[in-house]
Amino acid sequence: MPHTLLSAAEGGDLGGIAGWAVDVMGALGAPGAALIVALENVFPPIPSEVILPLAGFAAAHGTFSLAAAIIWTTVGSLVGALVAYGLGYWLGAERVRALFERVPLLKVADFEKTESWFSRHGPASVFLGRMVPVVRSLISIPAGIERMNFLLFVVLTTLGSLLWNAIFVVGGYLLGAQWHRIEAVAGWFSNAVVGLLLVLAAVFLTRRSWQAWAARREARAPGE
User: Fold this and answer.
1) CA nearest neighbour of 117 among 67, 41, 109, 39
2) What is the pLDDT of residue 100?
3) 81 three-class SS
4) How large is the angle between the packed helices 30-42 and 66-102, nearest 10 degrees?
5) Which of 53, 66, 97, 181 could form a disulfide with 59 if both were Cys (CB 3.0 to 4.6 A apart)?
6) Can you give the C-alpha Rg of the chain in angstroms?
7) Is the predicted pLDDT of residue 1 greater than 90, yes or no?
8) Residue 157: CB partners within 8 Å, gap ≥ 6?
9) Distance, CA of 68 to CA of 131 (rounded, Å)
10) Torsion angle, alpha carbons of 131, 134, 136, 141, to 10
11) How much is the pTM?
12) Which H or E run contains 123?
């Protein structure tokens, strides 16, 4: 089955990680997709924009069902996120930063960017961050560092991962051998999420400013 699947997927110009992913899914089925996605959540250089459409393609090819592809990739996302959460929880910010300095292909700047995301957006970043490159793989670490409520973390991670995974798995399923074309959607979708967060932040700041102004006005009113 791995060789048959690899041959059928050649339209995607496979090589490197993509070819390895097809081999793993062909050999292990849907749990193989979960394994790869779990690794992607711990090691960001593995791109979910490639892995997820390939899982959909494998489902279209009969390696496993579409439902299994979505469920197992979401399980993999959650497992990987829990590992990252645990790293943040037990190591703390400084030791995580030191780890990023030592491990090849990991960048301290990416960790700091994700820290900033969590600081600005809080729990919402765990849900929406699943749809933004780099942040998607690392957002669980600052959640662990900040001791975010565990149950809330699990719920938001599962929902965010389910949404992101379903879009790209179904896309790969529908496109078949042209699965790679859905990668172009990833950038647009991620930019839309970032735009939404910016709008929400602007609304929040405007509302807080209005409330502060109203409170100052009310405080001055008795003496006027």
Assistant:
1) 109
2) 86
3) helix
4) 30
5) 66
6) 20
7) no
8) 77, 78, 81, 126, 127, 130, 140
9) 21
10) -160
11) 0.75
12) helix 123-128
Question: What are the CB-based long-range contacts (under 8 Å, 24+) for 67-71?
Answer: 68/29, 68/30, 69/30, 69/33, 69/169, 69/173, 70/162, 70/165, 70/166, 70/169, 70/170, 71/30
Rounded-to-5 percentages of helix, strand, coil across the chain: 85, 0, 15
Distance between CA atoms of 43 and 206, rounded to whole angstroms? 37
CA distance 145 to 76: 21
- Residue 137: C-alpha distances to residues 46, 126, 164, 208 (Å): 9, 10, 12, 31
In whole angstroms, give the CA distance from residue 85 to residue 89: 6
CB neighbourhood size of 213 (10 A):
10
Q: What is the pLDDT of residues 137-154, one digit of tens each?
A: 889 999 999 999 999 999
More confident: 206 or 63? 63
Per-residue tokens: 78 = 């959650």
Q: What is the DSSP letter of 107?
A: -
